[in-house]
Task: inverse folding
């Protein structure tokens, strides 16, 4: 896919502009948008979900309660950073 021209994305939100800046890292898999990146320590490729704003609160609740019991704030944030991306 070809990225949008400057004229096309300029009137949009900062969030849209951040996504355009990441254009080469974006990938649609099974109809879901992800950002692909290499791990800092060379641990391979990772895919972060680009969750629509409308479901982010629910996603945070799900990640917070993941596994046995509730995760603390730091562990929840670690989960979000590993699995999701927000500019």
Result:
């Amino acid at each position: 896919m070809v990225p949008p021209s400057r004229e096309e994305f300029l009137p949009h939100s900062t969030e849209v502009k951040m996504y355009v800046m990441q254009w080469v890292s974006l990938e649609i898999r099974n109809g879901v948008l992800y950002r692909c990146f290499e791990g800092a320590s060379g641990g391979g490729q990772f895919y972060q979900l680009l969750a629509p704003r409308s479901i982010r609160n629910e996603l945070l609740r799900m990640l917070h309660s993941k596994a046995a019991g509730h995760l603390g704030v730091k562990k929840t944030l670690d989960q979000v950073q590993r699995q999701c991306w927000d500019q």
